[in-house]
Design brief:
By secondary structure, the protein is mainly alpha-helical. It has one domain. It has helices spanning about 5-30, 45-65, 70-100; strands at about 30, 40. A two-stranded antiparallel sheet has the order 1-2. Helix 1 (about 5-30) packs across helix 2 (about 45-65). The chain is elongated. The relative contact order is 0.12.
Length: about 100
Amino acid sequence: MKHQKSYMKARIIAYTIAFGVPVLLMMNCTGWDAGRGEVSSCFLDGYVFREIANLLYTVVFFSAFVLLLPILLYMGLVIAFVEIAIKDFKKENKKEENMDGE
């Protein structure tokens, strides 16, 4: 029970990184051309930022034609991974608390 707040903080951090950072990276760049699959300019310009934005825009574009399945799959995998990791940490903490009590 005393670790509930730390688990909630871990969830918030993990979900922010998994879902917020890609959106921010896409918002960083403008002028994506569907034909070439490239952005025209980025506020924070660099090869890595451009390529990540190109990849993210391509996934969103592709998802529009396959009923958002790639995006839903990504969301499902992230949620499953985070929840499994939290459950594993809870087990580990219970095991450590039981060992301390002995």
